[in-house]
Give the backbone structure.
Amino acid sequence: MRYHQTCDGLRRRDMLKAGMLTAGGLTLSNYLQMAQAGQLQTGRADRAIFIELPGGPSHLDNFDLKPDAPDEFRGSFKPIATNVPGIQISEHLPKLATCADKFAILRGVSHTLAAHRLGREYVNTGSKPIPALEYPSYGAVVSKELSSKSDIPSMVAVPRAGQGPGFLGIRYAPLETNSQPSFGDPFSVRGISLANGIGIDEVERRQDLLRKLDRRFAALEKSDQLLEGLDQFGEQAYSMITSPRSREAFDISKEPESFARQFGEDSFGQSCMLSLRLVEAGVRLVSVQLGGWDTHQDNFTKLKTNNLPKLDAGLSGLLVGLEQRGLLESTAVFVTGEFGRTPKINTRSAEGGRDHYPRCMFMLMAGGAVRGGQVIGESDDTAAGPRHEGISPDDVAASFYYNLGIDPTLEYDTTTGRPITLVRDGSIVKQLFA
Amino acid sequence: MLRKPSSITNPYYSGIAVAILAANLAWSVAVAVEPASPRGEDQPNQAIDPLSDRFADSEGEEVPNFQKHIVPLLGRLGCNGRACHGSFQGRGGFQLSLFGYDFKADHEAMLDEDTGRVDLEDVDESMILAKPTDADLHEGGKRYDKDSWQHHVLKRWVEAGAPFDQKEVQSLTKLEIQPAEIQFTNQSDHVKLRAIAHWQDGSAEDVTELCRFSSNDDSIADIDQNGRVQSGTSGDTHVVVYYDNAVVAVPIIRPVGPPAEHQPEYTHPVDRLVQTKLNKLGIVSAGRCTDAEFIRRASLDITGILPAADTVRTFLADKSSDKREKLLQKLLNSPGYAAWWATRFSDWTGNSEEQLNNVLPVRNAASRLWYEWLRVRLAANVPYDKIVEGIVTAKSREQGESYADYCKSMTEACKPGNENKFAERDGMPLYWTRVNFRQPEDRAIGFAYTFLGIRVECAQCHKHPFDQWSKNDFEEFAKLFSPVRFNQNQVTPDAKAERKEILAQITEGKDLKSNGDIRRAIQQAARSGEVVPFGELLIAARGMTSAERRKLIARAKKAGRKQPAPRIPTGKILGEPDLVELDKDPRPALMQWLRSPENPYFAKAVVNRVWSNYFGAGLVDPTDDMNLANPPANAALLDHLASELIQHEFDLKWLHHTIVTSETYQRSTDTNETNINDRTNLSRHLPRRLPAEVVHDAVLLATGSDTRAKELRGELEEMAIAEGQPRLRNQQNFVLEVFGQSIRETNCDCDRSDSPSLLQSIYLRNDSEMHKRLSDKNSWVMQACEALGVPGPVGAQDPRQLAAIRKTDAMRKQMIKRAQQFRRLPEARQENLRKQLEREFASAAKRVTRAGFAVPKFEELIADPEVWASLEPAEMAGNAEAVATVSDLIEEAYLRTLSRYPDENESKIALQFIEESEATAAGVQSLLWALVNTKEFIITH
């Protein structure tokens, strides 16, 4: 048994217990009830892009500004108007301001895990981490629930995944590209094109031979995750190698330059464009990361010169691009960091920084049945907590699954036969889809 | 740390643990108080009754104690949790230390008038009394009832003036749990635990209701907040009890079935201790693995090197009864052992070129030196504590070595191929010079990780949640590391002049101002072979620079005070009571503590890591997280091996030998009803994916020709297991990265990963590197084709060659066409044209021969043009002697990949496949491809 313990506390399990006291209690079949009552339409999206902002982006400086808060909270960034009357975001997100109608902002999202690893696990799964088992990533669940083409991976992580498949098993682990695309260059994942001199016939003959010879551990396969995973990856690798579909989807140089440019020329922007090509080709979930948000020091300079321009170009490019390709309606987009940052600016560096702060943060949702151009939830005067009832990562996860037509109250059995509800404590944020 | 209050209305308050049965999502808040169970009889001290008895009434004489009662009660009520007042920003303007144990800070926070938690004037207005009893007032909800014993305890403490005296903090000598272990038989079984605190002053108290409880696996044993343990499925785990700084794990076992009728009797101590546990669990273990499985397993685990086909053949043919023992001896004494284990020790000691950037004036040398220093010692089987001593107490210079000689020797050692010169030096100071190992706190964390196998980082900010360490323990420990300083441009005062001199020679008298310029000049000089200056480890023994000291004296003079006695800074060894004065190098004292037989971690940490190499998991797992709440799967076994290792004077080969000669190590993968779910009690071999370096090398060895493989095995120089593919700065070998080689950076054994992934499968199936290895001129496939007397695989040639071949082949086809045309002619015309055709043929034949291909005789071609159906390499065209059959080669392919003979069915499938292949070469190539892509190739057997 491997424990996932952390300093700040608690073993995963204590938190599971602690979570049981949350307001609202259990919402066992909130999805089914709402669906039956006709309050909800089934989600429309059948693919997803999950953008993770590891490090914990400061909510006060991007999507939840408090221009009227005292100096020690407010920071130096000013709000600007967006193309949706009444919605304001940071002045350093001008491109997103012109397409605010395409995404919904969730403010006053709140949880309690202020350590990077635990927080990331939480927002990557929608369930508070516990020690006895590891919850699966969104990608692993989507891979399991939505059938995909055999010659294309069902989940791709650019460049690496923030969360593994947990108890669902290694077979639902993503294809990690290990590198990021750069502007204008052909991109490929090493090993997916056929080498000189080996024809497709020979690849097929070889695979057939391998299947016949790889029998030694057949008896153990069912009970051993490692063996099962190796088998699964082998079969998938074969399908990908023998079909051109994956290769072409990865090759971002196939996009016209004008289209590529709207994503920004840095690797995050180009990763966003890659994610678009991949979902277009049939990948069920692509995860993309933009790091560098752990701004304990020099918060404002870092955000202004690096993170926000990248996020602005990459995300706006993605949303506009999805719409141009007619994919926005079928692609659920979810953007989140692991927590927000302390409202009060610390004094550890000349210009100050902000520390970990899970009690108040933001998330973004777009695509599928999500109605863009709205703000859901609200934080208090200094963005120190939700003003009213807060939204939990579980709620947002439930909504994300709903948007993909997956019942968040689905039950899975772990390898030891323990039944686990997909999102145990979350209720769908109805306003997102209203 | 304290922050001003801000209005917070987060509804996601979470507090005290409430038991949950995840299975059906039913949850229940257990009854608050249960009657105490009858007392154990063998108690040395009569434990006083629990608080719930003593404070059942609101009136009474007794004043609760802050350490023993108030802080644990707040913990039990959930007040000092991360989500509540234990948060680093506090909550509602009130902050407690996370998990308690910072009594002073907690007491101050409670009595701080701004927080209003304790109001001595108006007791009932104290927020600790008013808020937690009122759900409306308290964001955290209602924590206890008015007039409950909890209320009485807190109230009477406030009434008494909320006393606390730091001097009265007592140490808890023992937290006794009754029963000390539990064996369940049925799912319906349950037991209520009782906890008795034994204090330094000899008093004892029932503190069950002040403890926190958790289970390490609630599917086997669930525990509620009152300490009631409920049985679950079969297996074994621990429930953990927390009070004050104590963390006690209580073993719980529920046997799979009755003890086996025929319990094997073992003499090997490892087997005996493993069997004792298996008997308790009613698990029947798997039998012995086959010889073929054994040679592969032992070779890969001990040396990281795939055995050669011939080695396997000889071993399998050997009929002697002690052949396994002989093999193990041979492996342990082979160069592969030292090479592979130096790689593993490099992982644990954090040998990372990335972190050694600019430590030496020569680039990409430090990591090589570090590795070689370890390798040489492992090869000589230097006792583990001696190796560690060389690291822990390392000095830059040898005894009596001048600075100039030191620089000369180091410059020499940095030249590639000269690493052994560094290995000859006594110390390995590089450990102390890493960029991520320069702050005392980082060193405390890294040192504990490497040599103790524990994670103390939690205690950097608060009481360790799963161990005894308090924040104070961490701080005192960290102080020990502050005297050791390193900077690549700094040397001891006596060497400054010499350094200047060396530098002057390099710069030829030019005065270089910036450190960057100096560094570049030095690097340039090092490249051209000049002696360059090296930095040195410095010991600032007083913990105070001389400038600081001067300042202190000056200030005293100015103020007319007497010159102060130099205050000697102190630190503390983890878990030890005595202060270590930092007026001299503290590292010898640290070393003495490490190797002392009483050290609770040092021997266990290395035993556990070595063990995990052989079984895929440590006896404590994760291997670097020994803590009180994470007890070993088999404590008796770990204790035995650790104490024997000390007895054997830290003889590492003794440890390896003891482990690998056990039956436990030699088990097969076979499952039965009782052991199928066992993953911790060693009842069968659990397959695991080979480590990154081993995969890298196994592919080279399995696909390379005999000559190539022999070269690799002999020198080990290119082998990844021998750091032959060193990880340079910002540049890692692709295969090693994809297969999860350790990055050696974060003080975590999880820096290495052995999970499979899609990219790994894609690499082995289709990477161009793999294609090359299966077809180039150094490949075994090429060798096999030669042995069969058939042409080598396509791809053995480079593209230019391929073009030439195409051209030559076109010539062949042209000649065949001409010959066919010729045959169709009437005889008379043939007569006329024969000469011309012969000339044409001669000219073509010359070019084809020059290209290295065989040519039929002109007469043969005329007689039957089909005789020249394909291009054949000259020396093999029909006349090359086949020295092997396809069956021989199939056998060879199995032995060199899977270390076993193919069975009848496999041989048949392979033979048929090759026969049906268009070219024999392609068939052999595909067979070898298939074998390295089996699961069997990539996992242990």
Observations:
- The longest strand of chain B covers residues 235-243.
- Chain B is about 40% helix and 5% strand.
- Chain B has a mean pLDDT of 88.
- Chain B touches chain A through 101 residues (CB under 8 Å).
